[in-house]
Amino acid sequence: MTLLYSEVEEELRAAVRDLLADRLPPAAVLARAESVSPYDADLWKALARDIGAAGLLIPEELGGADATAREAAVVLEELGRAVTPVPFLTSAVLATRVLLDAGTGAARELLTALASGETTAALAVSFATSPYAPGGGSGGVTAEGGTLTGRVTSVAGADAADVLVVPASGALYAVDAAAATVETVVSLDVTRPISTVTFAGAEARQISADLAPLRAALEFGAGLLASEQLGVAEWCLTTTVAYVKERHQFARPVGSFQALKHRMADLWLEIVQARAAARNAADALASGVEAATAVAVAQAWCGAVAVHAAEECVQLHGGIGMTWEHPVHLYLKRAKADEIALGTPGDHRDALASLADIPGPPPTAGPA
Amino acid sequence: MTVDEAALQERARAFLAGNDPEGMEPLDFLRARFDAGLAWVHFPVGLGGLGAPRELQSVVEKELAGTPQTEIGKLTIGLGMAAPTILIFGTDEQKQRFLRPLWTGEEVWCQLFSEPGAGSDLATLATRAVRDGDEWVVDGQKVWTSGAHHSRWAILVARTDPDVPKHRGLTYFVCDMTAPGVEVRPLRQITGEAEFNEVFLTGVRLPDALRLGEVGDGWRVAQTTLMNERVAIGGAPVRRGGGVIGLVADTWRQRPEARTHDLHQRLLRLWVETEVTRLAGVRLRQQLAVGAPGPEGSGMKLAFARLNQALTSLDVEMRREEGLTYDDWTFRRSDSVDFFGRDPGYRYLRAKGNSIEGGTSEILRNIIAERVLGLPSEPRVDKNVPWKDLPR
């Protein structure tokens, strides 16, 4: 096990970072967030074509790059650092992982289309679904005679998807997005809005006869989300540090005041721990060894760190931090939404109660 | 010579084949192990090592498990601080003279840095060393010296030039603790025992051959020691769920009647924080394996201090009535910190020192802010003022 980054991973990071710096600086992200859909289809195509991001986790024989969770995590760090509005997490990680585990002919066919980036998918479950209660987020979609009926709320990435992967009546189905109604709702996270997806007798093809791939994909996604949270937190710390070095009050850079320095040192330490936890989760998901604990630890820690970093970034920017013009609010909104996504830190701590054998009190009472 | 895992394994086995620990004195075994380069494999050949990557030490430890070991508790300062400093700044003669008995435990080391008037602001220290021919005459008072009463040697920082700003007038020495004029007095602490000492130095004469590094370069030499101290304090490898969290979790498992929802939530949070800190330590050691300790070590110490304090505090609270008792307030000397052998009350009190010893948590935050994040320092009134003119 190594928690460091390999040379290949660093090269991948540099390629993604260069592309994002070139194509989508923060001001452009902000402008997009105010348009009808924040998703940048051209950028997504470039990420898919030039870097192979769309098919990163897909095997070579299906046209993918055959990489592991470790490489996907590095991409997510960079996308988090730039709050990039592309459907990497929702399509290339969550939906892709369901299809990989399903392994059926229909799933493999769809994976081939996803690998090129020409087709994009989304997992039609609430983004707030925890891996420990995977049934909770699929709403009441039912399958009957090859068609789906029902409604799912809070779906991330549906507005960018051509195909929806839908749990219904204990199985998994693929539905063309055109056959469903996707209504984007006003979302806390303006760079990854959620949608309500409604099926009214939509034609569907079964890709798995059971829901096992769903639970695995939610755990996989939760573990990798930690790397996105790490990227968000790192941007916030770097930006804050740069600002407090420049900003003068009382004839000194405000970053020379101990009260602020100590807060940033504490935040730095939280991020050091978050990086180790996120790398550990990615490594465990890549090797399949003790992944459940690694994911729960990373999610129990990194969600709150990203929120803390974004909150400190707002506070230490003073009035500027409260303006719509400064991009920090995009990070705060992403961090807060990410904290809820794929299980809250509390959900993951609860899971650790059994994973780490720290049982709770008996249900009725504490000590007399 | 490049040394890999297989070569080390082979070397360790060959060493064992030629040195049966059953048939020799433990000290002779340890000396032979040092001479075979199997003491600390990352040290150079001839000085107890093989110039191998640091992380390969575990290969040797595994092969030599069950053989005579050094009494690690007494040797913390020597192994963790004196040795790396001697290795970098010592002359060949000093390395040859000091490292072997340091490692085997024949000679215990202590640290004469802090003074009553120089704690966080170590560079302001007032112990004087005045040159007299080939010797230095040392006068002053040091404090918080663990193990001074059984130490043969000490690492000492003293002021050799009061007429320059404080950082520039310091020199680093090895102090002979058996020299006339060295007086050690126990210092009782909040746990009841005396783990530390005050050390009074009165006209102590040290030969110039005991100087480590250049005259006036003591601050730079001391930085090496302190970085290694923080790695030594904060960087101990543990398994997942081991260490203090393991102790608290075991009590938790054994006492279902003590469990409440509040304690459960706090314990789970601390379990997570322990685990991410452990992982950060693993990552730091992986980085160390390819370089030297950087300021990141300060972060580990900060994290461990916080965790130890929070966990030991929870442990006392969790025990309720039992938490109202204490095992022993007797004033006595203790040779090492017996964290796990004592009661929870002792651990709670002793852990309070974790955020003070080896750099307070406040100073560590300054170090992180300034050296890692590059934030500007507070305006300084003592920067370009000769030490002798500073207010105190």
TrEMBL record, chain A:
GO terms for molecular function: oxidoreductase activity. Pfam families: Acyl-CoA_dh_1, Acyl-CoA_dh_N. PANTHER family: ACYL-COA DEHYDROGENASE, ACYL-COA DEHYDROGENASE FADE28. Residues 7-118 form the Acyl-CoA dehydrogenase/oxidase N-terminal domain. InterPro entries: AcylCo_DH-like_C, AcylCo_DH/oxidase_C, AcylCoA_DH/ox_N, AcylCoA_DH/ox_N_sf, AcylCoA_DH/oxidase_NM_dom_sf. Its cofactor is FAD. Its EC number is 1.-.-.-. This is Acyl-CoA dehydrogenase family protein. Keywords: FAD, Flavoprotein, Oxidoreductase. Signal peptide: none annotated. Belongs to the acyl-CoA dehydrogenase family. It comes from Sphaerisporangium corydalis. Residues 216-352 form the Acyl-CoA dehydrogenase/oxidase C-terminal domain.
UniProtKB/TrEMBL annotation, chain B:
This is Acyl-CoA dehydrogenase family protein. Its cofactor is FAD. Gene3D superfamilies: Acyl-CoA dehydrogenase/oxidase, N-terminal domain (1.10.540.10), Butyryl-CoA Dehydrogenase, subunit A, domain 2 (2.40.110.10), Butyryl-CoA Dehydrogenase, subunit A, domain 3 (1.20.140.10). Keywords: FAD, Flavoprotein, Oxidoreductase. Residues 17-106 form the Acyl-CoA dehydrogenase/oxidase N-terminal domain. It comes from the Bacteria. Residues 216-373 form the Acyl-CoA dehydrogenase/oxidase C-terminal domain. Residues 110-194 form the Acyl-CoA oxidase/dehydrogenase middle domain. PANTHER family: ACYL-COA DEHYDROGENASE (PTHR43292), ACYL-COA DEHYDROGENASE FADE34 (PTHR43292:SF4).
